[in-house]
Structures are given as structure tokens and as C-alpha cells.
TrEMBL record:
Keywords: Transferase. Residues 3-142 form the N-acetyltransferase domain. Gene3D superfamilies: 3.40.630.30. This is Acetyltransferase. It comes from Rossellomorea marisflavi. One of its GO terms (molecular function) is acyltransferase activity, transferring groups other than amino-acyl groups. It holds the Pfam family Acetyltransf_1.
């Protein structure tokens, strides 16, 4: 099978990626997605896509970060595979590619957050990909 992983840069690529992303970010419209793109990319957000046989099937939205508790790291904001293409190893291949990219960029780890109800995702991260659950994430609207 022909697999290609690459960063999405153009407005056309981002527009095409919305169909996959909305499986994860159900609150977004195409217009809000593209509007946020402008700000996010200025702040260092990168969107990578996995193409299988020329079709975009998985996305990973990341940012290279440095802070006191993780040092230089990759933070994954979005990781999603199209519902029609799950359980084919695409998420694992894309995540492995992000790990390699992070190492090339001098990162020492990869971090992410996952909603408390996403038990299948947690099992994937911990059992399949070797992630450890290290903290809770707290939020307060202001």
C-alpha cells in the first residue's frame, strides 16, 4: 500500500483536511477551522497528514514547545483518523512519524491530552504506543 506522510501548508490542503478533522473537532465549521488556521500556524502549529493510496485518512496537529517540566518536546493537539479508515494502523504510523520528526527537531518527548471519556484512545496511547499517564489537565473558563 502506498503511504505518504507530509505537512499540510496550503489553504486547499487545509480545506480538504476538514472532513477528517471534524471527526475529532465536531464543534468546528469549515469557516472557523480555516480562520483558526491563520492564528495557529503563526504560533507554530503544524498539521501533518497521512495519505493512503492518495487519500487523506489521518491528521496530527502539533507544535514544538519548550517548558520547564518537559524541556524541548512535541505537543500533539489533534490526532484523528477518518472513521471509515480506523483499525488499519494509520494512527500508529502517523504517530510514529511524529515521534521521528520530534527527535529530528531536538525534542526529548511527546506530550498530549485526551478527553476523559475517550477510553479507546487512552488504550491506544498506553498499550499500543507506550505512553504513560502522568497528570490531570484542569481548565476554567474566564
Amino acid at each position: 500500500m502506498d503511504i505518504n506522510i507530509r505537512e499540510l501548508h496550503t489553504l486547499e490542503e487545509w480545506t480538504q483536511s476538514f472532513e477528517v478533522m471534524k471527526a475529532l473537532r465536531t464543534n468546528l465549521s469549515l469557516e472557523s477551522y480555516l480562520s483558526l488556521r491563520q492564528v495557529m500556524t503563526q504560533e507554530g502549529y503544524q498539521l501533518f497528514g497521512l495519505y493512503a493510496e492518495g487519500e487523506l485518512v489521518s491528521l496530527a496537529g502539533i507544535r514544538l514547545c519548550t517548558n520547564l517540566y518537559n524541556g524541548r518536546h512535541v505537543f500533539i493537539y489533534d490526532l484523528v483518523t477518518s472513521p471509515h479508515h480506523r483499525s488499519h494502523g494509520y494512527g500508529e504510523r502517523l504517530l510514529t512519524s511524529i515521534h521521528e520528526y520530534g527527535r529530528e527537531q531536538g525534542a526529548v518527548l511527546v506530550a498530549l491530552e485526551s478527553g476523559v471519556a475517550r477510553k479507546d484512545a487512552h488504550r491506544f496511547y498506553e498499550e499500543r504506543m507506550g505512553y504513560t499517564r502522568r497528570s490531570y489537565s484542569f481548565r476554567k473558563e474566564i
